[in-house]
Amino acid sequence: MLFLFLLLCIPLSLRATSLTEPDNGDNGSYPITKKKNFFYKTVDFIGKLLEQDTAYVTPNRFNLRVMPQYTYGYEYYRFSTPNKAQSIVISPAANNKIGIYGGWRWIFLGYSFTLDKIQPEVDMELNLYCSRAGLELFYRKRSDGFKIQSLKGFYDDNLPLKNYNREIDGLSTLQMGVNAFYIFNYRKFSFPAAFSQLTTQRVNAGSVILGVSFHEQQFMFDHTKIDPKISKQMLPELQFQKESYMDISINLGYSFNWVFAKNFLANISATPALGYKNTSLKSKINNSKEFISSINIDLISRLAVVYNNGRYYAGASLVSHTYSYNKSSLSILNGFGYLKVYAGFNFWRRKQTP
Predict the structure, then answer these.
(1) How many domains, in total, are found in the chain?
(2) Which residues pair with 195 in a beta bridge?
(3) Segment 126-139 mean pLDDT
């Protein structure tokens, strides 16, 4: 998948420069000549078609850039029985990070550190964007710092339990996945202008986005470690020991860049995903296992506001993932997202620009 992403991101016009005709001389060399064969002309023509329209998108004209960034990460989990007779919403405290990033052209690396005492064991993400495609990978693992945020169907002296914001043990989660997508209107619409500052959008434009995703989710739960006021009332459907599922889905959505002022951009993107889930559920009641396959709808949403005058830029972006799983005995709604606030500048202007 990474190879396919790189293949889409390298302009065909650059790949075509290696296609030359042999010299008729005796030196046996293969210099680039003005005369081109039919195949060379065809590839060169396609390469020009795939170039972005500079009236809509301005490329980055600098080699290097530096950017500090603040990242706010959140996640939540809602477990509920049929007809929502009982439900419990659990989430950890938000994760706050500060980092410094730098890069050469589209290669961008950096380091960040957390500001919180309680943090995930693992929280990694990798996002690669170019004019025609995007590739997103994530891996998250957590086993502490969870709190009950809301309850339904639980009582204390016949009164509903409310505002039960207490830390709990007994839950650990693992989430990992990859999302790849293709941008159709890449000549006039720039996804990197909103989410990686590699280009600048000059005129309003949008594009249909088509992608494919693979995710794996695991939830390990021990209800006996929760406050007895809750655990003793918990219906058998919520007393699962381990829930895990693998999801393969097709994403189809739309992304739009709104240039509301000079050098300013606002983006909104939504890509619903229709997925096939293969689920394994292990119950703590009778130590039984159940395997179920189902079709569910998930959602990836993105928002961004950016200022970019070519040399200096600043902005904020929010990327949110929402996953749902429903069956006759148990429903799970979980999600996570990242809010990023950043500012940076470009330097070392390129000698030759498009």
Answers:
(1) 2
(2) none
(3) 89
